[in-house]
Amino acid sequence: MDEYIIDRLNDIDKLIDEDKNIIRLKELKNKIYNNKELTYKLNKIKELDKYSEEYKKLKEDIMSYDDIKEYKRIENDIYILTLEINKRLKELTKGE
């Protein structure tokens, strides 16, 4: 691969690592998994039928945590940004 491209990819990687949303997402992930009660609920919900009332109530309970709300918001923002980046990359590579 061209050295210029490798350098630019390294720059992008560094920008991602230093992005405030990525940093906050990592902080929230640690905070969530250090919360024993929440971790228990997150593990429990994986075992349930997603159409059951127990699942729905537990999901509602999990989503009531502020850390989860913020995590999901940031996760969604990053997903949308990723879609936009992929769209632009596709446009750039159409001619090749």
Principal-axes geometry comes out as: elongated
Helix content bin: over 70%
What multimeric state do the chains show?
single chain
Any low-confidence stretches, pLDDT <50, length ≥5?
none
SSE order, as H and E? HHHHH
Given helix and strand content, the structural type is mainly alpha
Q: Total strand count, please?
A: 0
Question: Total helix count?
Answer: 5
Ends: how far apart? 16 Å
Number of domains: 1
The largest pleated sheet is described as: none
Average residue pLDDT: 92
The portion of residues forming beta strands comes to: under 5%
Measured on Cα atoms, how large is the radius of gyration?
19 Å
Task: Walk me through this protein's architecture.
The protein is an all-alpha fold and 96 residues long. It has one domain (3-93). Helices cover 85% and strands 0% of the residues. The protein has five helices and no strands. Helix 3 runs antiparallel to helix 4 (53-63). The longest helix is centred in the C-terminal third of the chain and has 28 residues, at 66-93.
